[in-house]
Amino acid sequence: MRKVLRFALVAGLLSISARPAAAEDNGFVASLPMATAQTEPLLVSADMREGTDLSGAWHFSIDPYRSGLSGFHGAPPDPRQQRWRDIDTRKAMAEDSRALFEFDMLHAPTVTLPGSWLAERPEMRHYQGLVWYQRHFDLPAGRKGRYFLRFGAANYQTLVFVNGQPVGRHEGGFTPFAFDVTKLLRDGDNQVTIGVDSVSHAESVPPPVTDWENYGGVTRPVRLVHTADTYVDNAWVRLTREGKLAIDARVDGASAAGLPVRLEIPGLKLTLAGKTDAAGNWRATMAAPRALVRWSPERPQLYDVAIAAGEDRWRDRIGFRTIERRGAEILLNGKPIFLRGISMHEEEISANPARQITPEAARRLLGEIKDGLHGNYVRLSHYPHSEVMTRTADELGLLVWSEVPVYWMVAWTNPDTLAAARNMVAENVLRDRNRAAVAIWSVSNETPVSEARNAFLRTLIADVRKLDDTRLVSAALLVERDKVAGPPSMTMADPLAEDLDVLAINTYNGWYTPDDLAVLPNSVWHVPSDKPLVFSEFGADAKAGFHDPDHPQKFSEEFQAEFYRQTLAMAERLPTLRGTSPWILKDFRAPIRQNPDFQQGWNRKGLISETGERKLAFSVLAEWYARKAGEKAK
Ligand code: GCU
Fold first, then answer.
1. Helix residue ranges, H only, 32-154
2. What number is the average pLDDT over the span 315-337?
């Protein structure tokens, strides 16, 4: 016996230095149920539901070798490393001299959530790996109803524990997920522990190499959402292209079947009564009231909408409009529209952003587009942004391109990768299909053409169309440069173009190519003429404040401004062009950009700097959009 004990102690000591085998291998992570759009509570418009916001100070503990997930020689995690345990380790060791714990979440330092760890502490600036978070919260005795832990998003893989019990896990850094934790809660003090692993791998979505910073951590609010035992989990209220008001709702809970339900839109003096079917679903349509004011960027009319179901009351603020394609026209409420936009990453204006999008941060960014650039559209790239952003676009009147991070080199033939991407599409569409602002769902950005890629993306396109028949589908595509002398000659040869409603092209002639800017307006574009074309990206870097008026070199504000003048002159000549979202509104963190004079880890293609200074090119685009808006106004 003693011999065995000594061996274990020695072995224990050894484990500090020996790197444990891959955490996944021991099946511990896989033993936690995976939250997906098919399995999880959806809690659509959860942000409008009663609940406790768990934002604020959380204890944190880094776990670079994932010892909390994998013990000695890859064994399941050792109790002395299990950060989620419901224990005060300092007290336990003080009371029992044999006790050993190599963590103490209760007395660990704290960080503020939501917000990525990389902006929180200098020593975490470039940390990519596993971090454990923990906090406590109190609950009254005699509680009724159900309690859900709902995450706005956490990047990339998240493991959740409550009161020392495993709850579940989630993959994906940009979409919401939730768990019903009603049965795990207790009166008084409760403890929640989250493990967030930011490391992506070749099979993840997005893959490891991108042109943006991998903001690890809990980047959006965590809330304890409270509902009745039977509640409306999913609801979609919209205007169909035929001008009908349509409702789809799913009630979850013991009395979901055959339950009387009622839609209420007080602003339209409208109520519609119905009953759920045996599965708790309610589907209804009705003629849209005459008084309905359709949502548009000029008049972003929103209505308070409620669905009463038993003791539950689901609420949302919804705008009603139609968006469709007819030939090469994009029609908003039946009228042709030109999308005056810009692309944007989810990063607040700051010298040290943490991917923390508060309503103020969202208003500041989107206000620059609406008021500064005279825009009516924003491309939220390359992943679903916070629901704060899409709600703010609803309120301000900006149409939205919403995208999933199927970006550059994805593992097209890997079934887990496809499943992860399909889940992100579903979580994104189900979260935001009540947002009038969202007009286009994008399934990818700049992906290389191949049979496997085409099949992968066609699956996503089919999923989107099944989940939402009221919006347009697109993807940011690359074009081929024809090998001819003279001005650039570009051909859209991507077979996926056939499957899309809107042709979207990223082009960087004059920046990533040595073309003289002056030749750009004479560029030739071979693109289908029966579909609307948008330039989803074009742009040039400029370091704010670097001026070179005499012979503008790249990275000077003058070069960027001239790049815009010439590219917009080119755009003017394209008969089917129906929108532009240049790259990009604001300089953003991008680890692949390391020119010491001009970039310092930032992509400088912003029209404003990371702290919000406008560059010369800002007014070039603003004037072009003002003229376009004027043309529209006439
Ligand atoms: C690409 C890509 C962006 C990137 C941009 C750039 O087109 O879609 O993510 O940041 O070009 O090169 O600046």
1. 89-95
2. 98
